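SAMPLE LOG
Freezer: B-3
Tube label: C17
Construct: single chain, 309 aa
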Amino acid sequence: MSMVINTNMGAVNAQRILDTTSREQSVSMERLTSGLRINKAADDAAGLAVVTGMNTQSIGTQQAIRNANDSIGMVQTLDGASEEVVNMLQRMRELSLQSMNGTYNNENRVQMQAEFSQLQSEIERVADTTKFNGQNIMNASSFAASAVLSIGQVANSAFEAAASAAGAFRAHVGWEGGNDNRVGVALLDFNTLQAASTGTQLMTGNGSGITFASAVEFASAALSAIDNDLEAISTMRANWGAIQNRLDYTVANLQNVDENIQASRSRIEDADFAAESANLARTQVLQQAGMSMLSQSNQQSQNVLSLLR
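STRUCTURE (predicted):
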């Protein structure tokens, strides 16, 4: 090998390798600082595209979980209010049976009617004021009329049609759009309860001139209306309970999907700290060795001076 001064190939080679080592060291430090293997598209272009799609699905899935849980809260609110209506109807039924007994006079029945009327008014108030996030869920004022059943329409065969009607309450439980990601809920208009109608009563006026037979007829009609209402509400509550159980399973499935998506994303995007720490230590040693060799290469030019002495 010839001895030259203008071009120091050893130094050039050492500089090239040092540059490569410095870039590797910089990448390792960046990954260890951020905790990510992919910090820019150049790190892994295909991996970044996959990770972006997975992040989109994960974020959407987490929102779908919140949607489903919010919908469960709405159904629970509706069911809880329905339970109180049932309690009031049970008390009204008790008063109806009491009114039929011949041991009570019409004045007693007027007193029973006073409580009966108050319970009717309270049922109407509950129907008009029970809301979830500002939306009425016990009458037809917030959602489409076709999606809110009247008391005479309650039947298992009517639930699917009401739940799928345009303007029905629907829980969006998917990370994508489309009807397959929605769960419809049929509602009940509690203002249509027969027992809450002013025509349903135990006694009229002050009871004067009303025979015992007529009083029994009033109470019997009220009892029949209450029984019909209780049966319809029980059917609706069974449907709401089934939907709530369905949404519970929906949440569990979404959580499982999100967990596996995040695990897959982590394998692509997250930095392996053990591997990156080892690589950083390797590049640091190589950098120190490279600097030493660069210094040695620079010293070789000094050997030419010995030929000039």
